[in-house]
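Quick one: examine this chain and its backbone structure tokens and tell me how the chain folds. Here goes:
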Amino acid sequence: MVERVLVVDDDTTVRDVVRRYLEHAGYEVELAGDGEQALRSMAAHEPDIVVLDLMLPGIDGLEVCRRIRERGSTPVVMLTALGEEEDRIAGLQIGADDYVTKPFSPRELALRVSSVLRRANRAYEPRTVRDGGLVLDVAAHTATLDGMPLQLTTREFDLLAFFIGNAGKAFGRAELLERVWGWQFGDQSTVTVHVRRLREKIEEDPAKPRRLSTVWGVGYRYDPCSID
């Protein structure tokens, strides 16, 4: 099946350029010029991924991203203006999977879309990873904690699976960017935001994490409670 991309941007030129590049890359593209139109489009036909500008008239991009996360785990790639670091971090905290800063290369955006979709649709060998009450079904791409479902984005799931699979080892943010995100260069605060979000979801007290520890001067380490 052809994967469907919803592109949300109020700039008609940006929408047209992005559409042409994504269609050339083999995707089916739906366009929306504002947040309300984007949400109506998603309600009518759920896309495989959303390319979302944060600066939208009416319902802004952050609110659209928040509502997407309330609906499920559809991947989101944000478009942000250069210098909008606070908005970018806010988007990642809400649950966006990736971001591209304006002005951007349409080819780079197409590659980012491909990368996020590849991770979302990755074919895993059926297996289950456990750490006490934390259970990841890698094949189904689902996670539970003490029997309750965890709402994880694609990137959060990948990061948590990587940590559990490499329990006891410390990783720097640059190495995590390369091994989980597939980026050789990028904003390392992306890792910080995702670690913070994981702690909020898997730790009893995120301020005093037991599983996902900070190793000062290095990065982060996953300390299992008990892996079966």
